[in-house]
Amino acid sequence: MAEASIPVDLLNPGQVFACLGFLEAADILLGNARGGFDWSDESDVRFRLSADTVGNPYEVVLLFLQHASVTSRSARVLGLDTSGWDIDTEQYSTDTPFPFPPPASPATLPAVLVVESSAQHESATRIEIGHWGDNRAETGRDNVKFWAGAAGYPGAALARDALDLVRDDIPASINDPFAAWAEQSSSFRLDWRRDYIPIDIGFSLNAHSGPRFKTVGYPIVEVLAAIGLTNARPEFLNKLLYRYGTLGVGSTADLFDPFFLRASLGAPELPFPQRTFRMKLGWPGKEGQSRCITTVYEEIENE
User: Fold this and answer.
1) In the chain, domain spans
2) Most C-beta atoms within 10 A of its C-beta, which of 41, 133, 187, 209?
3) Facing residues of 47 across strands?
4) pLDDT digit string (tens) for 230-274?
């Protein structure tokens, strides 16, 4: 077992989700992953992660992302694929259930990150993402899908584009991966540092073409946050308001199994050190389409 930690901003929901993404990925790639948020030093809050490896578990996950290709997955009966976006589509076997209600559009097909077997990877490794396919009516889980268009740009394409922006920068980002940035025109909208509401800033970047204005995003956060939402979701209060929670560990305390961290993201009351937050969203464009995070604050109990 080996352990490492990285800085995290608890007021950035995307970073909190991405910490769970590191946990999920490390559990798949290495096994026996455990984690926890260490806020014993408020000036340097960190996410601690351990797994079955002799090296740095963050490095293993990030190097996987650096070399991963992205495909989508479908079922032959659906007749859907993402070839129109230059993304291969695999088919689930007939005895494998589709992970969520059958989608009407290729935009909603699950994405799969794949590293094929090689000298560096003894066997092919896969991580599937598809939180955007859930819906409260049929699966009982909110999909936390903030980007627009059920019939628009596929989640698999967003994941591919995000990874392509930062592949060359990943080796230098291992100690502080959430700080890795790139010019990014579209994303899952899980890291709120990239987004804005045009009416709030007084103009829309879409009306200003050319190099004068650029949006800067954080692709590593976006991809890992999507992975982190595989088995956990924040609590849905309404379309523009969610709650999320974190579990605390000290700098030397034992870490939590994934089950506890997954449960804590929905902000239930748990018998462990815990902090909860609310995130407000807004409509950057037409109401009812894409959403973006605008405000995050910590819930403080009255003493």
Assistant:
1) 2-298
2) 187
3) 6, 37
4) 999 999 999 999 999 999 998 778 999 999 999 999 999 999 999
